[in-house]
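Contributing new records

If you add data, match the layout below exactly. Sequence lines come first and carry their own label; structure lines follow with theirs. Keep one chain per record. Anything else will be rejected by the validation script.
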Amino acid sequence: MSLALTRNELIRPLNLIDGTWTGAADGARFAVTNPATGETIAEVANSSAADARAATDAAARAFPAWRDKLPRERAEILRRWHALIVANTEDLAKLMSTEQGKPLAESRGEVAYGASYVAWFADEATRIYGDLIPQQQRGKRMSAVKEPVGVVAAITPWNFPLAMIARKIAPALAAGCTVIAKPAEDTPLTALALAALAQEAGLPNGVLNMLSASRENGIAAVADWLADARVRKITFTGSTPVGKHLARESAATLKKLSLELGGNAPFIVFDDADLDAAVTGLMAAKFRNGGQTCVCPNRVYVQAGVYARFADLLATRVAALKVAPATDPQAQIGPMINARAIDKIASHVEDAVKQGAKVLTGGKRLTELGPNYYAPTVLTDTRDGMLVCCEETFGPVAPLFRFDDEAEAIRLANDTPFGLAAYFYTQDVRRIHRVAGQLEAGVIGINEGAVSSEAAPFGGVKESGYGREGSKYGLDDYLSIKYLCQGGLD
């Protein structure tokens, strides 16, 4: 199919390596499809280990000169990149909605969100401070300075194809690192357009290299990066099993890793909560991007005294959601990313119903709209042991679990190997401090469903990974500390 943009040159079906747009070394290509229709949008380079090695070669060559630029010089390029992203919002949003499926309004919001990381780290580039260590011995001066780690490999998912790669590339470039990046096979076009704008902003050749690859070829490409000692850091957002694999396979060269992995976020509604506010917060947290986010509430715990009322309020709101392709300006929920996603969602709902759960709204595929649509769903009478409790559904399904008291809510919320995000609603100030202190998650929403911000540290605990993105802490993962001891000063 044809995709008409104001600037059609932003559709880049080639790799960016050392400042040149080029096909895969062996000429291989693969199709990127529109999840709303199944139609092919474009055929892009299907990169292999040879292409990954070429990207590493370019990044390694470019690193010394980029590292040695003044922080304000790097910041100026990042600011120009930010301005270009904002100026091309509509084209980027259309491209994103076409290959990922999210409603156009959400895609516009993601462009702004991703751009905010570029602006934030442009400023942070000039704030990389060291320390003068108080003198311990006469005649010696000790200090600590921060330096870029080197070549960074960024591997990103399909659910936020612009924001995820921007919040990895921007701090890396701000710190003085060079980057090799592989976006998800489902959504490479948005990332490649972002790279084109970075090049337009004046980023030197080789500082940012980006390649697309199918699932099979991508494994081989990433394996080359894992084995290459010149790659000093891996930053990855995706599943916990893949994150563990990256950690194991990178151990031979002791790379620095940032891993933002799977989640199983609880959303707790206490009986003293403002229920209307809690429903609004859950709608924002759960149904953004059709429920396809790592911080989506996967388990909704509602105290027994308000369970029935909350369920009715939520079901009314969810039933009113407009499910449609991104081309429909009224769309609130678009298609899921692919058939595998739909099959997983359906299997979770079917398993819950078989075990006694009730469907208040939704609970079915919407095949009349296209191949990858599922109705926004609310389930009641769900319990431990169901797939919706044990696995991350990654879709527009809100299962409601009943609890009796605060201690039970905390126990249930923490009863998972994951710890990315957690949410709770209460009007009791003392309870706020008790519960926030006991929940095992890296991100906590307190009477708030929309928690992401470029100024906040984002990341998880337990099997949701380690490292933080965003905020002043997000730069540290791309820096190493060097201790300097100067003697002979007495």
